[in-house]
Hints:
This protein is of the alpha/beta class.
Amino acid sequence: xxxxxxxxxxxxxxxxxxxxxxxxxxxxxxxxxxxxxxxxxxxxxxxxxxxxxxxxxxxxxxxxxxxxxxxxxxxxxxxxxxxxxxxxxxxxxxxxxxxxxxxxxxxxxxxxxxxxxxxxxxxxxxxxxxxxxxxxxxxxxxxxxxxxxxxxxxxxxxxxxxxxxxxxxxxxxxxxxxxxxxxxxxxxxxxxxxxxxxxxxxxxxxxxxxxxxxxxxxxxxxxxxxxxxxxxxxxxxxxxxxxxxxxxxxxxxxxxxxxxxxxxxxxxxxxxxxxxxxxxxxxxxxxxxxxxxxxxxxxxxxxxxxxxxxxxxxxxxxxxxxxxxxxxxxxxxxxxxxxxxxxxxxxxxxxxxxxxxxxxxxxxx
Length: 365
């Protein structure tokens, strides 16, 4: 079969639309005609990080569409179903069985390496393999192959362009609050970086009834959106040098109960930890700098916790339907963050989100 896909030829290269060959789905696979796919920071970050030998490659991991074919071994998914595609997990290892599907022992092989676990690829060009299966889907393509563990059936009345970002970005931000922190209304939460993931975290905290929510960003347009979700906005560039942590402590009555960092910037994380209340927790969800410098005395003496979080500690099979139900009920109005682009406008969408002109670009076919 033929499919039109956005290919990246090498590290840091732009997306380019080409025609590729896609395999028929195997007995354990699902073929999805992608109708919409979110553009995520992870797509842009990893395409810069991977070595040249892992290209050419098709990214995309927030696909939503309609099932065209189902392998004979697949249960629970049928032709014609509307689906959101998310990350893969084996569902068999100890981590998966204990509920931590985001920490699956096979995470790297199933989501990042560019091929199936047997070494084959789902996409080809002129007889040569193209690295694919990104998050088990590579959905920057009109057709994508997924599996029962990462294809989530949703209500056909849901707008697929709105549903797509729940496959990763919205699920990550909301899940970090609802699953990982699980705040009570009397707590305080600070979200550092309020792009799509951060705003999902703010909206989830508001839905949970958290009394004090603070949003931190250097872009006032993003802070304005966070304020509409019930947060107090803080732009660090408006404060005198050295005043940032004191301002957060002032807004949170002496220190935040919890924080979510989406920036992955070492200096921001260090200040976020300092701004925590004793026994407070900072959840780190961003992908970026690999080393941190933290005040070990502060951590120990004040019982503070810094922990990572993958995909909001979510199981997509239950979390995505739950979040979509919250949105449908008006409790999680993330649809207003979405800006749609034609699929062939992918590089324009990249430029716009990088410049901060849009929050969540979604490509539609």
